[in-house]
Specification:
Layout (H helix, E strand, L loop, with lengths): L2 H18 L3 H4 L3 E8 L5 E3 L1 H12 L7 E10 L2 E11 L5 E13 L2 E9 L4
Parallel strand pairs: 1-6
Antiparallel strand pairs: 1-2, 3-4, 4-5, 5-6
Length: about 120
């Protein structure tokens, strides 16, 4: 495995660890200042601080927001593809578990983009 790929995997593991713990202080060092988080709804949070605030807002929801599990990832150069299951509130009540995939971009050892795709709830 190349040194660059190892570094990218370590970066992503640090991000996932902080994200799973709902800890923006752990997530922050993994993000570039111009980081963009694109939601499955089409909404974008542009800039590191906006993305961190969106994470904090999501995690402060009752139940901590969507629950992620059973995931994995693969590094392809400056791109990371992550797959997972996500359990979220369904329209009309109740919960629904869906498959999701995020595509991340890396530049200069930091994440610059998180583009999230989920199966539809509706």
């Amino acid at each position: 495995m190349s040194e660059r790929k190892e570094a990218t995997e370590a970066l992503f593991r640090a991000f996932v660890k902080g994200f799973a713990r709902h800890n923006t202080a752990q997530v922050a060092p993994t993000l570039a200042d111009d980081f963009v988080w694109s939601q499955p709804t089409g909404e974008d949070f542009v800039g590191k601080e906006a993305a961190l605030q969106a994470m904090a807002d999501r995690w402060s929801q009752p139940g901590g927001g969507p629950v992620f599990g059973h995931g994995g990832f693969e590094v392809f150069g400056d791109t990371i593809i992550q797959t997972y299951e996500v359990t979220a509130d369904a329209p009309g009540g109740g919960k629904r578990t869906l498959r999701g995939m995020d595509i991340y971009k890396v530049r200069d050892g930091l994440l610059t983009r998180k583009d999230a795709f989920w199966k539809q709830l509706g």
